[in-house]
Amino acid sequence: MNMSMLRSVEELHYRTKSLGLDKGVFEPTILQISMMEEEYLNQDQINPYVFIDFVKKDETPYLIIYLWIPGLKERYRQLICSPGYRLCEKEEELLVSVCLNKNTGISSEMMFNVIWAYDRNLLCTNIELYSKAPLLSVLHMYFCMFHGIRELLFKAQLPYLAGQIHRADALNLSPVMTKGGPVDLFEKGVTMKMLRLLNSEWGVKELMTEETRHLAVQTYINFHKVLGGYDRISHGQWRYLKDCMVDKEVFPFDLKKFRFFGQDTTDNLFQSYLIFLAKERIINRHVEWYRDPSDPKELQKYTLEADLLLSYIGNKDEYDHLIWMQNSRLEYLDYSDSRYVVTHPSTVMDIFDESVAQHNCLMTVFQDVCRGNLDVGFMRRKNNPEKSFITFQVNECKKVVQIYGKYNRMINPYSNEMRWFRNVYMKEKGFKLSEPAELEDIPFR
Q1: What are the Cα distances from residue 21, in Å, to 26, 57, 92?
Q2: Closest by Cα among 309, 293, 409, 290 to 360
Q3: Whole-angstrom distance between the N-terminal and C-terminal Cα of the chain?
Q4: Long-range contact list for 86-91, CB < 8 A, 24+ apart?
Q5: C-beta separation of 144 from 175 below 8 A
Q6: What is the pLDDT of residue 442?
Q7: 72: Cβ–Cβ under 8 A, 6 or more apart, which residues?
Q8: Half-sphere exposure of residue 369: CA atoms within 13 angstroms, side-chain side
Q9: Rounded to the nearest 5°, which phi and psi values hold at 425?
Q10: Measured between alpha carbons, how far is 391 from 428 in angstroms, rounded to an integer?
Q11: How far apart are CA 42 and CA 38, in angstroms?
């Protein structure tokens, strides 16, 4: 499909005339040209810019479009549009290409004023300002001035499909011209609900070829009950549904996951999740590690954890050897009595497990612990030695520079555990508690 073929089919059913109006009738004033040029010059002048105006002359409404395009011999191209008339083929192709160019600029304030005047004079066009793609509003106003497929799609409030329809293949053009329904453009299975869900910059790409449409139809059929309560979904949600249908073993459908990907209007969150899954699979070839993020912040946190684990796995022999060499040296931290136990990390995974259990960033300094640049101890209750309780750091001067509980919680100085730590453990080991001014800025977050 291309614009010329689409226009030919439309012209067979709806003959339109060229306006044949002397453009000098709407010659802009010097002031108008000056204002357009000033605004255009304030842009980078590398990309096109569109100015529009709506006027009435002898009770006939006109939409005037000015295209400022880099490289034109003249400063701008003026297009004059009026109900029942159509631009010549070259002008129409130029208008569509400029309006579909993501880099083309236009003033939203000017658009709003013109749309308001247009809507008052040309009724039942369902015109609106598409805030994410304002230039589609320009095409909406133009194509709703005469009958055609784009007119039908714009009036059905499917602007993204209307703008790109000439790029779609294997369309049923004739039924649309007679029946007048957007779904008649496509093969069986496409519904208005599906078209509205895909009414976006990313969604319209799913409708451009027979192959992508077939997959889109199957996806919608499989998940139409889930999608029933949605007017819009994110790109990430749609990609998730497609993957759930194509590979059910890797992506068994989970409603919570579907809602999770709806927290991002793009597919960035889903893409990040795919990268995370790939890292998770690599890690599990070496150590058992599974995470199930429920929000973007948690995904970011787990991805950092994965990156650090991969850093360890990539040099596993080296770090295992280093921590083994530190093991006997760090025994100076160990202590036990009837109430509490103090131990040290003897493996790299001990560091990661403590960091996860305590919800701090100890894992980010695992390399320093392995190399002996950071001495870390774990304090546990005697009756539950496997459960993380308190993490602390000792510097080379035998000063405890940090002592934190879960979530970096400061330990109450009058609590039983802190009394024990200071009056029993530190005295036994000859440690001192660093003054606040001396604390090193390496928080376990």
Answers
A1: 9, 12, 16
A2: 409
A3: 57
A4: 86/16, 86/17, 86/18, 86/145, 86/146, 87/18, 87/142, 88/18, 89/3, 89/4, 89/7
A5: no
A6: 45
A7: none
A8: 30
A9: -65, -50
A10: 18
A11: 6
Give which of 307, 248, 299 is closest to 274, Cα–Cα. 299
Task: Name the amino acid, one letter, at 3.
Answer: M
Helix (H, G, I), strand (E, B), or coil: what is residue 406?
helix
Q: 248 or 320: which carries more pLDDT confidence? A: 320
d(CA 113, CA 136): 16
How does 171-199 read in b/e, with b if 16+ C-beta sit within 10 Å?
Answer: bebeebbeeeebbbbbeeebeeebbbbbb
Rounded CA-CA distance 313/324 in Å is: 16
Whether residue 405 contacts residue 390, with contact meaning beta carbons closer than 8 Å, is answered with yes
Q: For residue 425, what is the DSSP state?
A: I
User: Which residues, in sequence order, are bridge partners of residue 392?
Assistant: 377, 403
CA 365 remoteness from chain centre: 31
**pLDDT tens column, 323-361:** 999 999 999 999 999 999 999 999 999 999 999 999 999
The amino acid occupying position 416 is N
> How many whole angstroms from its chain centre is CA 270?
8
Tens digit of each residue's pLDDT (9 = 90 or more) over 248-279 = 888 899 999 999 999 998 999 999 999 999 99
Cβ atoms within 10 Å of 133's Cβ, excluding its own: 17
Torsion sign (Cα): 411, 413, 415, 421: positive
Give the helix/strand (H/E) hosting 14. Answer: none
pTM summary value: 0.83
How does DSSP assign 135-148, residue by residue? Answer: HHHHHHHHHTTS-S
Residue 183 CA, distance from chain mean position:
29
Burial, 396: exposed, middle or buried (Cβ in 10 Å; 0-12, 13-18, 19+)?
A: exposed
Cβ contact 267:239 at 8 Å: yes
Query: Whole-angstrom Cα distance, residue 128 to residue 304?
Result: 43
pLDDT at 443 over 80: no
Which residue has 């010659």 as its token pair? 27
What are the strands, taking DSSP E only, across 327-431? 335-336, 340-343, 375-381, 390-394, 399-404
**Number of alpha helices (DSSP H) and beta strands (DSSP E) in the chain:** 19, 10
Residue whose entry in the numeric block shows the structure tokens 């459960």: 387
Residue found under tokens 């013109």: 114
- Tell me how long the chain is: 445
Pairing of strands 399-404, 432-433: parallel
Angle at 62 between CA 56 and CA 63, to 5 degrees: 130
CB 159 within 8 A of CB 136: yes
pLDDT score for 311: 97
